[in-house]
């Protein structure tokens, strides 16, 4: 695992906050019911509070550590030579973008985003540029404000297109399909697309096949990429563009 030096915020920060507040309320309520002699309510509220606290802990672990370990393994499996042009669609503060950039020697990593803070705390182009400097890769990173449904790049620009927990934010199925088509369009022949998300991944796999991509794979990234539990697990969709 490549050491992280930058600050990458928290994904959808309101979610773990609500989980934590809910856990606290339940545990306080459990103590109150116990003091009143209502041991049935103490047990049920206590167990619920501990469960919700565990969900919050899982979420925080994923957003602060687990997703980096999972993506480090995914990028390692791509066996990059260091000469690639890589695009990160919805790069946020650069969690995946900069992991990819650290594997490049003569290649470049480009990140695009619309910088919505509700999707990631402190999200912004300046924060991503600062992280690139801290990680020592600013010389091989380009950052642009752009819509993933209208990528400002010619056909066949990139060897690898990645995206992590971004495409699900597109509000309609038609627009998500457009984002997938755009990712396929800017991919070079023989290039690979790798998408991680916790919603709509079956759609992504179908859309990639419709775009003519081959070797489409769809799998779980395991507990280190759970946002609270297995019901919010992240799955990986990958494919290759024919030569």
Question: What attributes characterize this protein structure?
Answer:
7 strands, alpha/beta, elongated, seven-stranded mixed sheet, 243 residues, Rossmann fold
Question: What topology emerges from the helices and strands here?
Answer:
Blueprint: H1 14-35, H2 39-77, E1 85-89, H3 95-101, E2 108-113, H4 125-134, E3 141-145, E4 158-164, H5 173-185, E5 187-197, H6 201-210, E6 214-220, E7 235-240
Parallel strand pairs: 1-2, 1-4, 2-3, 4-5
Antiparallel strand pairs: 5-7, 6-7
Helix pairs in contact: 1-2, 2-3, 5-6
> What sequence of helices (H) and strands (E) makes up the elements?
HHEHEHEEHEHEE
What is the mean pLDDT? 93
Instruction: Give the helix level as a range of percent.
Output: 40-55%
| CATH class group of the domain at 80-240 | Alpha Beta
Sheet-strand content, in percent, reads 15-25%
Q: Examine the secondary-structure arrangement and name the CATH architecture of the domain at 80-240.
A: 3-Layer(aba) Sandwich
- Note poorly predicted spans: none
Number of continuous helical runs:
6
Principal-axis shape: elongated
Write out the strand line-up for the largest beta sheet, numbering strands in chain order.
3-2-1-4-5-7-6
* CATH homologous superfamily label of the domain at 80-240: Vaccinia Virus protein VP39
- Number of distinct beta strands: 7
Please report the distance between the alpha carbons of the first and last residues.
Answer: 32 Å
Instruction: Output the structural class.
Output: alpha/beta
- CATH fold call of the domain at 80-240: Rossmann fold
- Rounded to an integer in angstroms, the radius of gyration calculated over CA atoms is 20 Å
């Amino acid at each position: 695992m490549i050491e992280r030096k930058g600050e990458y915020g928290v994904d959808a920060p309101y979610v773990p906050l609500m989980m934590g507040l809910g856990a606290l309320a339940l545990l306080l309520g459990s103590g109150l019911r116990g003091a009143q002699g209502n041991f049935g309510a103490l047990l049920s509220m206590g167990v619920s509070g501990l469960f919700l606290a565990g969900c919050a802990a899982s979420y925080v672990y994923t957003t602060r550590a687990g997703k980096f370990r999972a993506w480090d393994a995914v990028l390692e499996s791509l066996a990059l030579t260091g000469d690639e042009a890589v695009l990160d669609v919805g790069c946020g503060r650069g969690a995946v973008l900069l992991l990819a950039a650290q594997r490049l020697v003569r290649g470049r990593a480009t990140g695009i985003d619309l910088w919505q803070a509700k999707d990631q705390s402190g999200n912004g182009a300046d924060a991503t540029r600062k992280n690139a400097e801290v990680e020592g890769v600013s010389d091989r990173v380009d950052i642009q404000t752009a819509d993933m449904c209208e990528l400002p790049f010619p056909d066949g620009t990139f060897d690898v297109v990645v995206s992590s927990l971004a495409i699900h934010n597109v509000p309609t199925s038609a627009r998500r399909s457009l984002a997938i088509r755009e990712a396929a369009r800017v991919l070079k022949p023989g290039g690979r697309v790798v998408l991680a998300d916790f919603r709509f991944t079956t759609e992504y796999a179908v859309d990639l096949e419709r775009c003519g991509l081959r070797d489409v794979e769809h799998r779980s990234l395991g507990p280190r990429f759970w946002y609270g539990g297995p019901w919010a697990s992240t799955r990986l969709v990958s494919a290759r563009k024919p030569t």
